[in-house]
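ESCALATION

Customer reports they have been waiting on this structure for their group meeting. Please prioritize. Original submission:
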Amino acid sequence: MISTRTFATSVLCAVLFSSLGTAQDLAKCRDFQFGMSLESVAKQIHMNASDAKTVHQRPAVIQTLQWDQFGYSPLSAKADSVRNVRFDFYNGELSKMVVTYDPAGTEGLTTDDMIEAISALYGPATRPERTIAVSTSAVYEDNQKVLACWEDEQHSYNLFRSSYGNAFGLVAFSKKLDLMASNSTREADRLDKLEAPGKELVRLARQEEDKRTAQEKARLISKPKFRP
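Update from on-call: job pushed to the front of the queue and completed.
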């Protein structure tokens, strides 16, 4: 008799096999080719490119687009094991995907079960001793332990299990585009810190000017009406 866990693993294998791409085709995660445009990704998941959040505008444009199964059905109808996907873009090109699996769809599965399912597509996994950044925030760092990795010279797929909520996830990226995005983000952060004092002075000056303008408007209203 087939155990519940064995059955669940078989189902997960089928889902991953049908949706992550052809065998060992690391250039394509699910139906998304690394390097494809923001507009193409948005159209494919039935969202608008304008829904993307711009993280940095210089020296390169860094953007993210978040898909959630509770808000958009087309992707979830095809692969209901997925809870959400974050698409990262470097100058409008898809550089990284962060896939978070729905805990309900992976209930009872062990790390070995997940590795077995993904290895059916990408071959034997390695288990490097390293962490991987999951969040794009410079303020809130979310680094998770890599449970298994599948990669070639150009792409890398990393399985993790979040310490917040215990959900499995997969970070897949183009090494070339992700490296350029990381370098650009570091430079953007450096420029932001360098320009922060000047921007604060401008903000304070604008705030003071707005205060004076408001006071002058109040004066023009109050002066004619005042009776000593």
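Sent to customer with the following note: The chain has a mean pLDDT of 84.
Escalation resolved.
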